[in-house]
Amino acid sequence: MRFVCFILYFIEFFYICSVTDNSYTCYMITHLKKLIYGFLLFFSTQTTYAQLGFSHEIGAFVGAVAFQSDFGVRHNFDTNSGNTGIALGVVHYLNFAYRSDCNCYTTDTYFNDHFKLRSEISWNKTSLEHFGEWVDDDRTSENADKLRAHTGEAQNLDIGMQLEYFPRSIRAFSAGAYSFAPFAAAGVHYVSFNPSVETSYGDGNILNNNNFYNGWDQVSDGDPFVSDESGSTWSVVASVGTRYKLTLLSDLFVELRWQYYFDDFIDGLNHKMPSNKAKDWNLWLNFGYIYYID
């Protein structure tokens, strides 16, 4: 129950922090309940597992994200380094190797000794702008000015699960037999996204296509190619990392995570030019702390 309260306080914090000019952002209003209900449904499942004797771990992390979107030039260093942001999250683990009801190890199976189930609520935010050859200083065209004037922001709230695989024994690591426990993981996240779009070109109206790069409008077929509407989607995540045994009941961890979204308006931009070959995706580098609660 303490973990539930911790998670809900985390969500409430970002709900309060989303107040802008005394009005709540649309995505927090429309999707926060879905995230809470989803988490409570998941936690009821975790409680069932707890009754079977599995132990629990909780933690938190901070990190950096490199957002790969329709802003800038693909495979461009300035784009990759410039469109970066921050990430925060809280995590919960089911540890199958140890029983909380008897303070003893579970049945010695390969799955119990090499897998953990992770649940997570996280938030990330990235400021976006166009980098690369099309906005170089020697570019003086109208389109170059439009690209320079166009900025955005991607802000996402995630809830999800992933299965983590530890090649080395979880039991041995928990007992302090070695200091590092590398892992690989894969899972699914539900994402509530809230992009923002701005331009300082022309009249500054984001509904006026003349304020944006001409090529996007020419291939749009009348469909919108910029949008600041909030929404929700699913994503897949995959990560690699390692834990470091800090004390008998606590670990530090670092992970590199790839996240692919099933929507291309996460960044508020979705044009139909040939260069738009994939939906938005994100690269996370997280540093965290984990505590074994039972």
Explain how this protein is built.
- The protein is of the alpha+beta class and 294 residues long.
- The protein has one domain: Porin (Beta Barrel), CATH 2.40.160.20.
- Helices cover 24% and strands 43% of the residues.
- It has helices at residues 2-17, 26-51, 77-82, 110-114, 142-149, 170-174, 214-218; strands at residues 19-20, 23-24, 54-68, 84-99, 104-105, 115-129, 150-165, 180-193, 196-199, 231-247, 250-261, 281-292.
- The chain has an 8-stranded antiparallel barrel. It has a two-stranded antiparallel ribbon with strand order 1-2.
- Helix 1 (2-17) packs antiparallel against helix 2.
- The two termini are 13 Å apart.
How are the secondary structure elements laid out?
Elements: H1 2-17, E1 19-20, E2 23-24, H2 26-51, E3 54-68, H3 77-82, E4 84-99, E5 104-105, H4 110-114, E6 115-129, H5 142-149, E7 150-165, H6 170-174, E8 180-193, E9 196-199, H7 214-218, E10 231-247, E11 250-261, E12 281-292
Antiparallel strand pairs: 1-2, 3-4, 3-12, 4-5, 4-6, 6-7, 7-8, 7-9, 8-10, 10-11, 11-12
Helix pairs in contact: 1-2
Task: Describe, in short, the structure shown.
The chain has 294 residues and is an alpha+beta fold.
Number of helices: 7
- Approximately how much beta-strand content do the residues carry? 35-45%
How many beta-strand elements? 12
Number of domains: 1
Identify the strand order in the major beta sheet: 3-4-6-7-8-10-11-12
The dominant shape is elongated
Radius of gyration from CA coordinates: 22 Å
> How far is the first residue's CA from the last residue's CA?
13 Å
Element-level helix/strand string: HEEHEHEEHEHEHEEHEEE
Stretches where pLDDT is under 50 for at least 5 consecutive residues are 1-6, 8-27
Question: What is the class in the CATH system?
Answer: Mainly Beta
Sheet bearing the most strands, described?
Answer: 8 strands, antiparallel, barrel
Instruction: Return the structural class.
Output: alpha+beta
CATH fold topology: Porin
CATH architecture descriptor name: Beta Barrel
The average pLDDT value, as a whole number, equals: 84
Helix % is: 10-25%
